[in-house]
Recover the amino acids of this structure.
DNA sequence: TTAGTGACTGCAT
DNA sequence: CATGCAGCCACTA
């Protein structure tokens, strides 16, 4: 769909913007759709940068593969992320995990392929 | 060009 | 289950 001109970061941002309200997806999933299955960690970094740079993307809809919110020290952001998701109807249990099975968003089209 | 960074992940314990 | 850890990767300075 896109000419290979765009960077990994561009594809990631585009994909995250496709996640519907009330749905979530994982770093690994975005990385896979963006064409680099093992770059989940890099996706996390990009989400961090997007927030820092005030990019207009629903970064809060991206969580880890265990269905939880990755805090890694930034409890402040983690709580905000949880509030934003709960406001969209995504519930978290006592262990801080949501029903990924039911809430996971999956792209309905093959966006990127080499 | 290179080394440092970290919102990840799967597997072993 | 929960923890720990090594492997992986794109972005930055």
């Amino acid at each position: 769909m896109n000419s290979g001109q765009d960077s990994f970061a561009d594809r990631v941002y585009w994909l995250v913007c496709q996640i519907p309200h009330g749905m979530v997806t994982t770093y690994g999933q975005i990385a896979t759709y963006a064409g680099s299955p093992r770059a989940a960690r890099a996706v996390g970094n990009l989400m961090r940068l997007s927030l820092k740079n005030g990019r207009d993307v629903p970064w809060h809809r991206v969580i880890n593969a265990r269905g939880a919110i990755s805090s890694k020290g930034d409890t402040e952001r983690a709580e905000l992320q949880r509030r934003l998701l709960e406001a969209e109807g995504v519930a978290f249990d006592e262990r801080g995990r949501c029903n990924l099975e039911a809430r996971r968003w999956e792209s309905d089209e093959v966006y990127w392929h080499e």
